[in-house]
Amino acid sequence: MTTVAIVRCEDYEPKRVEDAVRQALDLLGGLGRVVRPGQKVLLKPNLLRAAPPERAVTTHPTIIRAAVAAVREAGAIAWVGDSPGGVQWNVTDRVLEESGVGPAAKEAGAEIKDFDAGATDIIECPDATVLKKFALARAVREADIVVSLGKLKTHCQTLYSGAVKNLLGCLPGGGKIRVHQLAPKARQLWAAFLDIYAVVRPRLALIDGVLGMEGEGPSHGKVRHLGLLIASEDSVAADAVACRIIGYPPKAVALLKQAEERGLGTGDLAKIEVVGLPVEEAAVSDFVRPSNFAFEVIPGFLMKLIGRGVSVEPEIVQELCKKCGLCQRSCPADAIERHEGLVIDQARCVRCFCCHELCPHDAIALKRSWFIRLYDYMRHKRKRRRDKADAPHS
Ligand code: SF4
Ligand code: SF4
């Protein structure tokens, strides 16, 4: 049986976070089960883009500080490293600074590893499903232990982002965009993430779900207070429990089934023992899903029938666009053209939503088709009816 720990942590008050991280690790048998004195432990936060901690885009600095302290207490050497999203070299310092992760890591005694500035190794995996060859940050291989410090968020393409998806940042710079080119659909993308997971093999996952993100995550959704930390030696199991907490049906996130089939982790909740806070107490019923949720849950035959009625398209809001060109440089399908302003060629767009994820000015909107709007309306109506029926009668 795989174990996942859930711990309450209502806010980011440093002492509360430190206690909660310690409690989560103790519930799993202590950090000493995983980390030996003298080992190099790479803590991999989610540093998607430059955003202040209260936006819930990145793993919170107090979590980093507490994790570094725990590693050092175990007598090991702490590294904190990542490569932010998109094709953006030389931005790691700014992301570290704005997210607060850099100062927190340094103050706690960790060494920063900027994957974009460091050396890379070419990894060949003939048995991989999608990524048979890719460049990996050398620091990932040099570390004795990798810990995924993911952030609990929705994701416009894969629906969910937590511990496993977080490892995409182990690929420096444009390597991440190449993954989107090779895997344009959510299912293929999860297969690619599992290819990375199979190489990186984090020994521990700790998901920051104190403030998560709902709606159009992982960058422009709404901040959602959950007050939780989720930890496991199996990142897939940690993600499975996180998905259960936010009310996703297990089949919605392809990661869980694929990981089971490939023997890379436990995605089946029936095989997971939850310790600490019971999952029913941690669960929320009103977590707002991303617009494209319907794609993953509507049966294929119905999708064919409805055709273009089921679509979510990225659209550049010209009044907000600063013409920085980041979306254009990061688009894996070369679908963004510069005329007077920037315009998306919808015929070429593969709906990866990298542009939406990375735009620093909230200038990419998601245009939902009539069916998606109807689907969301029906869901909310059903929920309101359920809430009314559940409400205590006075
Ligand atoms: S849409 Fe956003 S990322 Fe793209 S050019 Fe405009 S401001 Fe930059
Ligand atoms: S336009 Fe945006 S959503 Fe479409 S392929 Fe390019 S980055 Fe992806």
Characterization of the model:
- The protein is globular and about 55 Å long.
- It is 35% helix and 23% strand.
- Strand 14 (336-338) and strand 15 form a beta hairpin.
- The termini are far apart.
- It has 2 domains: 2-282, Rossmann fold, CATH 3.40.50; 293-388, Alpha-Beta Plaits (2-Layer Sandwich).
- The strands form 4 sheets. Strands 1, 2, 3, 4, 7, 8, 9, 10, 11 and 12 form a 10-stranded mixed sheet that branches. The protein has a two-stranded antiparallel ribbon with strand order 5-6. A two-stranded antiparallel sheet has the order 13-16.
- It has 394 residues and is α/β, with parallel strands linked by helices.
- The model has no long low-confidence stretch (mean pLDDT 94).
- One iron/sulfur cluster is lined by residues 316, 321-327, 342, 359, 361, 363-364.
